[in-house]
Amino acid sequence: MKKVKYILLVFISLTMISCGGKDDGGGGNVDPPDPVNPPTASSLISPANNTECLDGENVEFRWNSSQYTDTYTINIKNLLTQSVISQNTASTNITIQLEKGQPYSWYIVSSSNSSGDTAQSEKWKFYLKGEQTSNYAPFPADLIKPKSEETLSPGSIEFEWNGSDVDTGDTLTYDFYFGTSNPPTTKVRSNLSSTKITQTISDVGVYYWKIITKDNSGSNSDSGISKFTVSN
Fold first, then answer.
1. Is the pTM of this model over 0.85?
2. What total of structural domains would you count in the chain?
């Protein structure tokens, strides 16, 4: 009789374990990991945009901190030589030696150790003072549309760019070069006051374009060349 009671007790215990549901040892629902926030973009402080900057070769760059960011990468481009300097820092300021009398652009990329995403600030331009001058050449134009390496359909194609000058009293005009040769040598339009034009392109192929920016003091700058493809 005792043996029967013992077997019955074991059977009831096994039934409770198998039907009792949850095992706190790891069989229940697992909470999802906390979301990873991507870094946000920094806002730039100095050198200020479209200004004449400082005397001397050592330039201090400053920007505001951005959320969820561990490191910042500063990218500085000489707009005449197209050479680029990139440096990483955990700080929100850095001093870099540059060549005097040259135009530059700069921006900041924010990165996080917890995320593969990055965030890019605005891009600002400045002239680093060199020898005394009464007039600076315009900044090379930024080519906006068509985007470099973009493929477009034949028809009316809009070209757009952006020009600026540290000499705020200067009047800027633009010469538009366009064609199938690299570099483009055909000046299609000259002395444009607008920063947009439309060209009708019927033939498929690879095209190149650039903008020469001129001020009313006789100085000018070359945007460099952008390339796009027209295809059916």
1. no
2. 2
